[in-house]
Amino acid sequence: MQSLIKPRRSFLAVSGAGVLSAAAVAVLAGRAAPAQAQTASMADVNILNVALGLEHEAIGAYELGAKSGLLQKPALDVAVLFQSHHKAHRDALAAAIASLGGKAVETKSLDDYAKALNAGTLKNQTDVLMLAARLELGATNAYLGVIPAFKDAKLGQVAARLAADETMHWTALSGTLSRALPANALSFGA
After folding, report:
1. What CA–CA distances, in Å, run from 171 to 76, 159, 179, 181?
2. pLDDT tens string 76-95
3. Cα dist. 154→139, 149, 157 in Å?
4. In the 3-class helix/strand/coil scheme, how is 79-144 assigned residue by residue?
5. Domain boundaries, the chain
6. I want to staple 147 with a disulfide (CB 3.0 to 4.6 A). Which of 140, 156, 173, 182 is the partner?
7. Confidence of residue 38 (pLDDT cuts 50, 70, 90)
8. Which residues, in sequence order, are CB contacts of 78 under 8 Å at separation 6+?
């Protein structure tokens, strides 16, 4: 449900090349990065790859939902829109991984995602929307949880922006499902 919105700015556009770690800048300049910086970059790459895996899963989930025949307009339009957001997230994460000298994790087959998500149990539109809301909440909390782990603080800022998108998706899905918003403040990332 996240793929028809304009792609958001990529990681590299947050503040120009300011998103790149010192190691990535050194590599791009043709110099060997210090070993400590390379280690920090690879730690960030590992975190980014976990995030990329979540985005691949979200893209697959929305694809399954859209192809299921269970979603009716306007929920189908929202699903496609949100999928486009996840595709933009995927592209930004893959670009950031490459800029740090890493290799992006590959997407799995749609059948693999269907099995992992128990797509065979989805019987109606509500089931699909509940699955999407669960995945969006999980992604929100995952992005918020990794912010302190980034060695490059700019990547933490990007993770916060991605968490904001995921929170917006969760909120929209919750409204569609007529779920009440959280009664307490600070309800995400805990």
Report:
1. 16, 18, 9, 8
2. 999 999 999 999 999 999 99
3. 19, 12, 5
4. HHHHHHHHHHHHHHHHHHHHHCCCCCCCCCCHHHHHHHCCHHHCCCHHHHHHHHHHHHHHHHHHHH
5. 42-176
6. 156
7. low
8. 1, 172, 173, 176
